[in-house]
Design goal:
- The structure is a single chain.
- The chain is an alpha/beta fold.
- It has helices spanning 20-32, 72-82, 89-108, 137-148, 224-231, 256-260, 279-286, 293-299, 305-317, 334-345, 349-357, 426-446, 457-477, 493-507, 519-535, 544-569, 589-592; strands at 6-16, 38-42, 56-59, 130-134, 151-154, 156-163, 171-178, 184-194, 236-237, 246-248, 265-267, 323-326, 368-371, 385-386, 412-414, 516-517, 580-581, 594-600, 607-613.
- The longest helix is centred in the last third of the chain and has 26 residues, at 544-569.
- The relative contact order is 0.17.
């Protein structure tokens, strides 16, 4: 068996995960750490990993400052509005002031960015989005990371972070295994930059059976960014702030290019405009400050995404579904029709295939929209992730402890989904955060803060035994199957995932219950999650691929537990359309205009919850 082989690396910078955040970190680490040893560990292959793996039709975060389009302050205000007031403005501003340079680099490396034939600028899809021919977006960006890292370990799944045994609360690296050979990898590292993914598939997906795995967010995003960090006691923030997306039904093709570029719009099943009819009742829940349709119309200030979701969910529940995207008008223009199809062929091929397979031609029939199951992530339009230090020149004292993007564990940095409070970063912003975290990590090393880390052989052997335990368990009990894949001595990862998804859907506000929960339901959910954790000790894996699925399940479970704790702690409905607290159905600024912060004690498993202040560093109109 391959897991008798231990591969050890003693390095300066370990980049955990090679999506856009990880590639940005590896690229920048070389600039600031000319003599440092930099290694990337990626559970897939760096050329096609992360959320951008199969391509992207737009870069969703670009200021265009050099074209006189937007400033970083504008972006902070936009994200604050969309997130109902709650963001880390220091982190957002820091990302926004650097993101354009990352996009310009992508173009230099060969990424085709569409040009506006009238203006001397990039072709805009919306205020923040620029359109690209992005099927090869990820391989282009990955090339820069590969050239700057000392080594890229593809097919290595990281399962645990290592903590220093000399100095308390200091990172010392990570361990994992090769999903092909089974080799056990030990990375003893002065710093770790976590660029792992957020969480899809912790809630029961809309697509089941033959559609299994067809989700909006990457199905391989298994909450590792959170599972790794929560397990060692890093503080987390805004983990209740899951996202629900309006998407084309079943294929989950994005709608942005259609709304913004093709100028399509929605109707209910009766062919009526429906959103505006829900604004009066919704205003009673969130207040006029957050929902003022007249102001939005007059100033082009967007209505928050979650509130538009609420209108769609409410209309369907009132019996006037399905919701349709009106494409028949735009698709009469041959150019717009071509753009509509290319939008999917460049990033969500399954949507085009599904329409073809089910005889849906958007030129002759308005396709259906739906709302997705919830996802937990920190790089798209929500802000889940670790509680991180901001930049010294912007952050208030409560938000700064020495090094930009460093978590509450010394030497542990984050980018992309891993960083909390920074919504609307998307791919370019995640890459930018990777660069920022790498610069800070190199400074941390240069300041001598990573010297003298110690990880004992005893600890390595403990983790090695834990990592491969599902395979050992399978070997012992595999002959005791009673029928099919039913075994009284173990559960397999697929069974465990089904159980987790059902639990989260029913108790934590999934699509199956129209995103509704309450304190009683959440309490039952936490109890069931605790029982499930006991059963995960009997998880079985028949081979290395199933071992990968086992550890993805472990990370998803830990993420789900944290999400449930946060959802119980925030006693209000801050984001109607993402989830509802039926026992606290109003937004409550008096008590909850705050960020939530949690820490799970690694020894006891107990959570400590606290409120953190929201500082509005950018004033309206700046």
């Amino acid at each position: 068996m391959g897991y008798k082989t231990i591969v050890e690396d003693n390095i300066d910078v370990l980049v955990a995960g090679a999506g856009l955040g990880g590639t940005g970190a590896a690229f920048e680490a070389r600039f600031w750490g000319q003599d440092k040893k930099i290694i990337i560990a990626e559970k897939a292959n760096i050329d096609r990993s992360g959320a951008v793996a199969q391509g992207l039709y737009a870069i969703n975060c670009y200021m265009g400052t050099r074209f006189g389009e937007n400033n970083p302050e504008d972006h902070v205000q936009y994200a604050r509005i969309d997130l109902m007031g709650l963001v880390r403005e220091d982190l957002l501003f820091d990302m926004a002031r650097h993101v354009d340079s990352a996009v310009h680099q992508f173009e230099e490396w060969g990424l085709p960015i569409m040009k506006d034939p009238v203006k001397d600028s990039y072709l805009r899809e919306g205020r923040w989005q620029i359109m690209i021919h992005g099927e090869s977006y990820k391989p282009i960006v990955a090339e820069a990371a590969k050239k700057n890292a000392d080594k890229v370990y593809n097919r290595v799944c990281l399962t645990h972070l290592l903590m220093d045994e000399v100095k308390e609360n200091r990172i010392a690296g990570a361990v994992g295994f090769n999903v092909r050979t089974g080799d056990f990898h030990v990375f003893k590292s002065k710093t770790v930059i976590c660029g792992a993914g957020g969480a899809s598939n912790i809630f029961k997906p809309r697509s089941t059976g033959e559609g299994m795995g067809r989700t909006w967010y990457a199905p391989w995003s298994s909450g590792s960014a959170y599972g790794l960090m929560i397990e060692v006691g890093a503080k987390m923030t805004q983990m209740e702030n899951r996202i629900v997306l309006a998407r084309f039904k079943d294929g989950f093709g994005p709608v942005g290019a259609y709304f913004l570029h093709l100028k399509t719009y929605t109707q209910n099943g009766l062919g009526e405009e429906f959103e505006s009819k829900w604004w009066p009742s919704l205003q009673k829940i969130v207040g006029k400050e957050y929902l003022d349709p007249e102001l939005s119309h007059r100033t082009h200030r967007p209505i928050p995404t979650c509130l538009r979701n609420h209108a769609m969910i409410s209309e369907v529940n009132a019996g006037r579904g399905p919701i349709h995207m009106v494409t028949m008008e735009a698709f009469q223009d041959p150019h717009l029709e071509e753009v509509g199809w290319e939008n999917f062929l460049g990033m969500t091929i399954s949507q085009a295939v599904l329409w073809a397979a089910t005889d849906v031609d958007p030129k002759n029939e308005n396709p259906e929209l739906t709302t997705s199951e919830p996802y937990v992530m920190g790089s798209h339009a929500t802000g889940s992730g670790a509680w991180c230090s901001g930049p010294e020149d912007v952050s208030p004292p409560e938000y700064f402890w020495g090094y930009n993007r460093m978590m509450t564990i010394e030497g542990l940095f984050g980018a992309g989904d891993a960083v909390g409070g920074t919504p609307h970063a998307f791919s370019s912003g995640s890459f930018t955060e990777g660069r920022l975290s790498a610069k800070a990590a190199c400074r941390y090393i240069d300041d001598g803060k990573g010297e003298g880390i110690v990880v004992s052989d005893r600890r390595i052997n403990e983790l090695k035994e834990k990592v491969y335990k599902p395979m050992e368990h399978y070997k012992i009990y595999r002959n005791e199957v009673v029928a099919g894949d039913v075994n009284p001595n173990y559960i397999n990862p697929r069974q465990g995932l089904d159980r987790l998804q059902k639990l989260m859907d029913e108790y934590c506000g999934g699509a199956g219950v129209s995103y509704m929960t309450n304190e009683k339901l959440l309490g039952i959910g936490l109890k069931k999650l605790k029982i499930m954790e006991e059963d995960l000790q009997k998880l079985a894996a028949s081979d290395f691929h199933e071992l990968l699925r086992a550890w993805e399940l472990m990370h998803r479970h830990r993420t789900a537990e944290c999400v449930t704790q946060h959802t119980m702690f925030r006693k209000e409905t801050r984001w109607p359309g993402y989830y509802y607290r039926g026992d606290a159905l109003k937004l409550d600024d008096e008590n909850w205009h705050v960020l939530t912060v949690s820490r799970r004690d690694p020894d006891t498993g107990e959570y400590t919850m606290e409120k953190a202040p929201v500082f509005h560093l950018v004033k309206d109109g700046e």
